[in-house]
Here is the input.
Amino acid sequence: MREYKILFKKYRKSIFDYYENSFFTSIYRVCAILIFPLLKNFSPNHISILSLLLGFTALMTFHFFEEIGLNIIVLFFLASYVLDFTDGIVARYQNKTSFYGRFMDGLFDIIVGSILHIIFFKSIFELNNSLILYFYLITIVLHPIQHLVMDRYSALARWINEVNKNKKLKPYYRNDFLGKYTKLIYDIQHICIWCILFNFFNHAVIINLFFLFSFLASILSISIHLFLSKKHFSLTRNHKDNREK
Here is the structure.
C-alpha cells in the first residue's frame, strides 16, 4: 500500500491531465501502477521484451487459431500497453533507467503497433475495393515512418543544441504543437480497440475508423515535424560538418 501511495503521489499531477497525457495514457499508467508490486523485482528490459512477445503471440494466435475472436486478440495488446508503462516505472524504482532501455522500449512500441495494424488489416482483407486496400497498406507503412521522422527530428534537435550552444531547441512538441488534437486522435484509436474488446458495433466499421485515425495521426505527426524541421533547421549552420573535408 505504501508503494501505491508513493507512485500515485508522484504521477497524480499528470494522470488525467489532458495537457500532459491522453485519457488512455492515464488509464494504462494507472493499470501499470496497480500491477507494479508484482513486477518490481523484474528486469525492466525483460518487461519490455514481454510486452513485445505479447504482440507476436497475438499475431501467431490470430494466424493459427482463426476461431478465436478478435476481441480476445486485442487483450494481448491491451496487456502489452500496460506493460509498456510498467517497465518505465520499474526502471525508475530500481534506478536502472538507461538510454538503451528507452531505445528498445520505443522500438518495441513501433513493432507492437505495426502488428496490431497488420492483424486488423488481415481481419478485413477480403474486401474487394482496391482503393480501400491501398489506403490500409499506406496506413500500415506510415505508422513506423511517423516514428522515424519524429525520432530523426529529436536527434537532430539535440545535435544542434550540442553544436550550437546558443540554440536550445525542444526535441519533442507533443504538448505544445497541436497537442490536444494528437492526444484526441490517439484516444479515438484506443476507443476503437476497446469497442472491439467488448464487441460494440460492427468490427469492420470500427477497424475502418481505427485506420482512418491512424492515418490522420501519422500525417499530422509527419507534417508537424517536417514543418518544424524547416522552421528550426534551415537557418542553423552545422559548423562541425562545415569543417569536415
Observations:
- The CA atoms of residues 127 and 133 lie 8 Å apart.
- The chain has two domains: 1-106, 124-245.
- The radius of gyration is 20 Å.
